[in-house]
Structure prediction request, 525 residues.
Amino acid sequence: MTSPTTAPRATRREWVGLAILSLACLLYVMDLTVLHLAVPAITEDLRPTSAQLLWIIDVYGFMVAGALVTMGTLGDRIGRRRLLLVGAAAFGAVSVLAAFSPSAEMLIVSRALLGITGATIAPSTLSLIFHMFQDAKQRTTAVGVWISAFSAGSAIGPVLGGLMLEWFWWGSVFLLGLPVMAALLVLGPRVLPEYRDPDAKRLDVLSAAMSVVALLAVVYGLKQIAQDGVTVAASVSIVAGVIVGVLWVRRQRRLDDPMLDVGLFRIRAFSSALVTNFLSIFVMVGYFLFIAQYLQLVLGQSPLVAGLWSLPSAIGFIISSNLAPRLLSGVRPGYVVAGGLATSTVGLVLLTQVDVRDGLLVLVLASVVISLGLGPVFGLTTEMIVGSAPPAKAGAATGMSETAAELGGALGIAALGSIAVTVYRGGVTSGLPAGLSPETTSAVKDTLGAALTVAADLPPATGAAVRAVAQQAFVSGLQLTSAIAALIAAVITVVAAVTLRSIPAPADPEEYPNDEVHESGCPTH
Prediction:
């Protein structure tokens, strides 16, 4: 019989449940990375416009960001396990819909639905782990396994995606998660406990809708400006999104149970760590979009080879995210974060030196340096975000951390992607050979994938000229966005060193505030 002061130890059932939850999180991360390798094949098959292509890639992250807190509140009310199982079933069904999408518009809708269903899965995992593992040492081990699932997903995703694309069509990458979802549905009811919050907040549907509308309206305007220049429709969309966002903030301040506790931003350590985490993910996800396209569309590698070349970066991230916080446990975390950001700045500067002909080694080296630098940043800033909030608001702090992470990644793709599109179009417009039809010129100006498809059907000399111009324009966009990302990383290096320096270093790596994380979803890092 367990004494009142001794927490019960987990049994085999709980460890099996942990394995299932970790697989779900691994899948959650994989879905953020495998699509990048499929971009050339999607471009060739569905012929999306540049704006549609960006929507296909990042609407998933936007919908997850907009729905995370809402789904977390819903899980508190109806039960975390129930939400997880419903989300898993919906995720599997929508994955099939995405895999067989016949048009760019259908794929965008499918990716948006995947984001909503992914948000139903995310908030449940860590909450269930904390209820399954009451013993402190076992819980530390369980959380370590949970965190490692994300790193594993970032490493496995490109390789599995490359293998699928080597033998099957682009839609096959969406089917990778079906076995995991099936296992979750079969084993989940048997090994996972149910949990409901007796003090669950009321679900504010209006706040949830306003947050999504504000995000999508601003991003729509940015993408349209990148594709068509400044127009009335794009400007109105951005202004409307900003207005809805301001109204949303005012509503949160008035509500007794706000969707997000905006009062937490008055805590300096919290807001500084949150901004650092947000911009770090903005930089990393934003630049990663161009790597897979460069390897395939500029260097001509197969999806499998491109996926394998992404492994060194993923391995570097795994090593640095797991070892750096422990090796540097006596150093103030703010200085570790600043050092990591400074290292990533060096890598991003290296990335500006990639050229059309022989940029492979420079690209791989730059990617590894960036990953080694950013690896410890995400974990430490997440811990500082939660640890700096009052214990009673740790759950709200974690929800904001996860939302900021998703939003940072999606905005990184949207903003840096839009800049790259603008540079690409400018380079192509000024360099194309004379005599091309308006239809051909329009296709070449849209995306690099479309340009290579068109070039293959042109006379050899003309096709080679079009291919060279398009590839050079794409690399110019890669170089500029890398320079912008390097500048952002350099700025937040200084900000982190100054604003986070007051946070003391834990005496032992086990003292990082895992126990203060209550209601989190799966992070993207």
User: Anything to note?
Assistant: The first helix runs from residue 12 to 46. The CA atoms of residues 137 and 250 lie 42 Å apart. Confidence is low (pLDDT under 50) at residues 507-525.
